[in-house]
Design a protein that fits this description.
CATH superfamily of one domain: TolB, N-terminal domain
Number of helices: 29
Distance between the termini: 9 Å
CATH topology of one domain: Rossmann fold
CATH architecture of one domain: 3-Layer(aba) Sandwich
Mean pLDDT: 87
Structural class: alpha+beta
Strand content: 5-15%
Strand order of the largest sheet: 8-9-14-13-10-15
Number of strands: 15
Shape: elongated
Radius of gyration: 31 Å
Low-confidence stretches: 1-31, 649-666
């Protein structure tokens, strides 16, 4: 029960329990009146049975529509269920039949916050404080509004003032702990948390909030203890059950995790977090059918839940054959979205959706044809023909496909690939090998384990990028050292560490790109996104960032006198006239600090200028460096660095730019949601 509910009902509930009226309608032979139903609703709220409480208050109002207290408690129930618009409307009904109390005004304000009406909420909090200057709920609400606008200093001042009148307010203490954590003040966080623990007894929400903080600090034992305490107070507490189940899941204790999360589903079958976690638990336990059922149920409940859909796709790619009907169904959804993006001329998004659909169902006839058409429209004829030939090899050719193949076979006569007969180009290419890892703990409490889902999604997206060859899988690692060791021993060039954080409306996917040889950080990316498609947009941003950080690197495949064939083309943003260096095979390496490629000038054996292009190949003319001819197939080809101009005489070096580091808006958005959950 929220603190607001407790403060409104404690006195009446004690009287109701003393009279033995919970639940009244279960006691045969006794007359049912509005007062008895109301008291029964209070008892049900106290035990966490919100849905039954709604029924009791509704019945009370059916008998007495002017029952102001019943309207107020029905509003409490709707607020607890996240139905903020109905909560506000019921509060207004309550005003018609009872006083405009500070508690109700404050609840209306919080309802307006849930609806995004922050200005209206501030006016209501001010009204409540005029009536009751030391109202802790209203002060808490004003502090929450300060956080929503990124003013933590003001929020801390209000909460500190509230603690002067109520030093044992666990909600204020936990809020201050959360703010301190967001600001990176570890000792202050620990101090507030320790003090809050003295006062959380009997408060399920406070116990859960404290458990979450301990989990984030790596203290799983204390987090589990507090989560169990919250469940003992309120058995239907979805957040506490989800956290406890995720702690069991992270520890590999799958039977206990399953039991806890199935209990959560028993209380609320529409709980998306519970279904998501159950799907991961079943998948980890090797129970494919049960995992598919859990994730499919969530996809049906929430078609817009990207994490659920991606997790289901990952599962089916891992456990089913290419021709499994389940794959075709999942891919069809992707292809339909891609077609919609095409109609809206959002071609980059369409390409991403077609690629994801083809990763799920590589044999999809219509999906691959539509993807091929996008390649044709992007002026990549060789890639277009390659996709058509793939379908023909699968036995899915028809007259239209055969005609298109004949036309493009003819158009590509005299192209670079035909002139060089480059059938073995792929075997000689050496793309960047990248290992992808997740580092946990995912988007708890919204999608526990989502880091593993997103890491795999990123890995699959990178597989479609030219010049990149991701390693198989995207395992979770407990710490950096494990990822470093695995990537280095696998012979990768780079590795990526992926983490995910969530709020109710936002997601931030973070990634570190590191050199596998030294572990040095090449780049750190953060991709915060809100609204629809936030996961796919975040991952697309990471893919773009990783591509931009990798220097163009190719391989000299063949040589004919002073002409050479190189495995770089239009897809690598190569243009006619571009200049490249040819470096002795094995002499170009990633710099120890991961800032790019390095080589010795003595290992540069030639310069090559692009004369003709294909989608993935170019033909260039050699300009030897030095007297001897040292150019051979399998030599490395890199872009020629621009020549640096010496500074003018007497010119001073420009001062380094000063970058102001401020907390991202996501930090305050996520903090706002977490603090709001304490009301």
């Amino acid at each position: 029960m929220t603190r607001a509910a407790a403060s409104c009902t404690a006195v009446v509930l004690a009287a109701a329990l003393a009279l033995g009226v919970a639940p009244v309608f279960a006691q045969a032979g006794k007359p049912i009146d509005a007062r008895a139903l109301y008291n029964s609703g209070l008892a049900l709220m106290a035990s966490g049975e919100t849905y039954r409480a709604v029924d009791a208050f509704t019945e009370a109002l059916a008998l007495n529509p002017a029952y102001g207290d019943a309207w107020a408690m029905l509003a409490q129930c709707q607020y607890k269920l996240g139905e903020y618009e109905r909560a506000v409307s019921f509060i207004k009904e309550s005003y018609k039949f009872g006083p405009r109390s500070p508690a109700l005004v404050t609840l209306e304000a919080f309802g307006n916050i849930g609806l995004g009406k922050l200005a209206e909420a501030r006016v209501l909090f001010d009204e409540a404080l005029v009536k009751r200057p030391n109202d802790r709920d209203a002060r808490f609400g004003q502090a929450l509004l300060d956080l929503s606008t990124g003013r933590p200093v003001d929020a801390k001042a209000r909460l500190a003032a509230s603690l002067k009148t109520a030093p044992g307010d666990p909600r204020a203490l936990l809020s201050l702990a959360l703010i301190a954590k967001a600001e990176g003040r570890g000792e202050e966080t620990a101090a507030y948390l320790a003090e809050a623990l003295r006062w959380t007894s009997g408060d399920a929400d406070a116990s859960y909030a404290a458990a979450t903080l301990f989990a984030e600090q790596g203290d799983a034992i204390e987090a589990a203890r507090l989560a169990r305490a919250a469940i003992s107070i309120e058995p239907a507490h979805a957040g506490a059950r989800g956290l406890l189940a995720s702690l069991y899941y992270e520890s590999g204790v799958l039977d206990e995790a399953r039991a806890v999360i199935e209990g959560a589903i028993g209380y609320d079958r529409s709980d998306p977090q519970a279904w998501f976690l159950l799907g991961l638990i079943e998948a980890a336990d090797g129970r494919r059918v049960e995992a598919e059922y859990a994730l499919s149920t969530l996809v049906d409940l929430r078609p817009d839940d990207e994490f659920a859909r991606i997790a289901l796709e990952n599962l089916m790619m891992d456990v089913s054959g290419f021709e499994d009907p389940s794959r075709a169904k999942l891919a069809a959804w992707r292809f339909a979205r891609a077609a919609d993006f095409e109609r809206r001329l959002l071609f980059e998004k369409a390409v991403a959706e077609y690629r994801r659909g083809l990763a799920v169902d590589p044999y999809a006839n219509r999906g691959r044809r539509r993807y091929a058409e996008l390649l044709r429209g992007a002026k990549l004829p060789a890639s277009y023909l390659s996709e058509l030939r793939f379908l023909a090899d699968l036995g899915k050719s028809d007259r239209a496909l055969t005609d298109a193949m004949e036309i493009y076979d003819s158009l590509l006569e005299g192209s670079v690939s035909r002139d060089w007969n480059s059938g073995g180009a792929a075997a000689a290419s050496r793309p960047y090998r990248i290992a992808v890892f997740s580092v946990g703990p995912g988007g708890t409490p919204f999608h526990a384990g989502s880091d593993m889902v997103v890491a795999r999604y990123l890995r699959d997206a990178l597989a479609f990028e030219p010049g990149i060859a991701p390693e198989r899988g995207a395992p979770r690692v407990p710490k950096f050292a494990d990822a470093y060791r695995l990537a280095r021993e696998a012979g990768a060039d780079y590795f990526v560490l992926v983490s995910v954080a969530e709020s109710e409306r936002d997601v931030i996917v973070s990634a570190e790109l590191r050199a596998a040889r030294t572990g040095a950080l090449a780049a750190r990316f953060e991709a915060p996104r809100s609204g629809n498609d936030r996961v796919s947009l975040s991952v697309a941003r990471l893919v773009q960032g990783i591509k931009q950080k990798l220097e163009t690197r190719g391989t000299l495949l063949e040589r004919r006198s002073d002409l050479v064939l190189v495995d770089l083309g239009r897809v690598d943003d190569v243009k006619v006239g571009d200049s490249f260096l040819v470096i002795k095979s094995g002499a170009a390496a990633i710099k120890p600090d991961a800032s790019g490629l390095m080589w010795n000038d003595a290992d540069v054996v030639a310069r090559v200028v692009v004369e003709r292009l294909d989608d993935e190949l170019f033909e260039g003319r050699l300009q030897r460096v030095g007297f001897f001819d040292r150019v051979n197939p399998r030599d490395t080809v890199v872009r020629e660095p621009p020549k640096s101009e010496p500074p003018a005489s007497g010119a001073k070096a420009a001062p380094a730019a000063v970058v102001e580091v401020v907390p991202s808006s996501y930090v305050w958005s996520a903090l706002f949601e977490r603090v709001r959950s304490l009301y």
